[in-house]
Amino acid sequence: MNEKQMFAERLKNAMQGAGYDVRSSVLEREFNLRYWGKPITYQAVRRWLRGDSIPSQEKLQVLASWLAIDPHQLRYGGERQASINEPSAVWEVSSSSEERRLLALYRSLPSEQRKIVHEVMETFAKAYSK
Predict the structure, then answer these.
(1) pLDDT in tens, 19-66
(2) Whether domain 3-76 has CATH 1.20.1600.10
(3) Which of 6, 65, 66, 72 has its CA 20 to 30 A from that of 88?
């Protein structure tokens, strides 16, 4: 198995581990919701899942963040040797019913409208940050 195929297997496993169906359409949709550059195509994500290509480092970072996996592990496999062995902070915040309802509404929007909502929220956060 070559490097690209091994990456494809790690990507599929990460998607399954995060609770997503391993389908190109799912990967395309979820990636484009999180990536603020030019949207990727169905064919591009299909090549990732088939083991024909590996995404750029920038796209790999977005994938790893979305799937809650270390980017190095997603790209190369195995455990990453960290130079500092500090446990990462885990912030557990329970969401209220209002927050869950807003998130459900947000998720029901088409991707273009989600991007607009995200930009509006960032603008408010910058304007009202202390």
Answers:
(1) 999 999 999 999 999 998 899 999 999 999 999 999 999 999 999 999
(2) no
(3) 6
